[in-house]
Amino acid sequence: MNLKDRLVAQRVYMFLGALFITSLVVSNLIFQKFFYWYPFDIEVFGSKLFEVSVGILPYPITFLITDLISEIYGKKRANQVVVAGIFASFFSLLIVFVANAVPATAWSPVGNEMFSTVFGNTILAVFASMMAYLFAQFVDIQIYHFWKQLTKGKHLWLRNNFSTFLSQFVDTFTVVGLLCLFNIIAWDKFLGLLISGFLFKVLIAACDTPFLYLGVYLFRKRFKLKVNEEIDLL
């Protein structure tokens, strides 16, 4: 690969990393709003099916990006993005903590009580999310590369879905469990939110497979990559 192509590949990698980190941080900040997404009134263990947090909306994007980075740039680069995402999340947590601690003025459009209601649980939520995220992303990357090596770079759909399905279950189980443990969510909603969240993520993961194929196709065409060949950014 010539220098020009390497620089382009580096810029794209940085853009994917930025998109990944933004999706992750935003999902941690907006998690307290829940919505109901389904045309039928079905309940699962006291919770409606697909009654999930809005924080779940940008989250599947992170798994799509790490799968794309794993496929094109390799396991090492995917792990680097995960570590950067953890750092960004804890840094955003520090900012929220300080913002919550300083007193609002009498004329402030958003007062102390309103700010605490929206962001007061963010510290615990980010901790819960980070524990879940840490396990899930590394599980996703490990399983993805296991299937990639086993299939010698073929059957992209297989490693994309199998790695994401298991990692999403780990993520959902951990984050819902920790939120219940910290009394942010009642325990009687644990099973319902676990099943709803997992099924929603599985559905999104299945839908993102064509986008992964498209991304891999564009990368291989632009950089003239063979099947199972990765870009070495040095």
Q: Care to describe what's here?
A:
By secondary structure, this protein is mainly alpha-helical. The protein contains eight helices and four strands. It has helices at residues 3-29, 59-72, 75-101, 112-119, 122-150, 156-181, 190-207, 209-223; strands at 34-36, 43-44, 47-48, 51-53. A two-stranded antiparallel ribbon has the order 1-4. It has a two-stranded antiparallel sheet with strand order 2-3. The longest helix has 29 residues, at 122-150. The model has no long low-confidence stretch (mean pLDDT 83).
Features:
single chain; 234 residues; mainly alpha; two-stranded antiparallel ribbon; 4 strands
Helix-strand layout with pairing:
Elements: H1 3-29, E1 34-36, E2 43-44, E3 47-48, E4 51-53, H2 59-72, H3 75-101, H4 112-119, H5 122-150, H6 156-181, H7 190-207, H8 209-223
Helix pairs in contact: 1-2, 1-3, 2-3, 2-5, 2-8, 3-5, 5-6, 6-7
> How would a textbook summarize the main sheet?
2 strands, antiparallel
Structural class: mainly alpha
Overall shape: globular
Question: How many β-strand stretches?
Answer: 4
Helix share, percent? over 70%
Percentage of residues in DSSP E strands: under 5%
Strand order of the largest sheet: 1-4
The succession of helices and strands, N to C, reads HEEEEHHHHHHH
Residue windows where pLDDT falls under 50 for at least 5 positions: none
Rg on CA atoms, Å: 19 Å
SS field, number of helical segments? 8
Mean model confidence by pLDDT: 83
Q: First CA to last CA: what distance? A: 12 Å
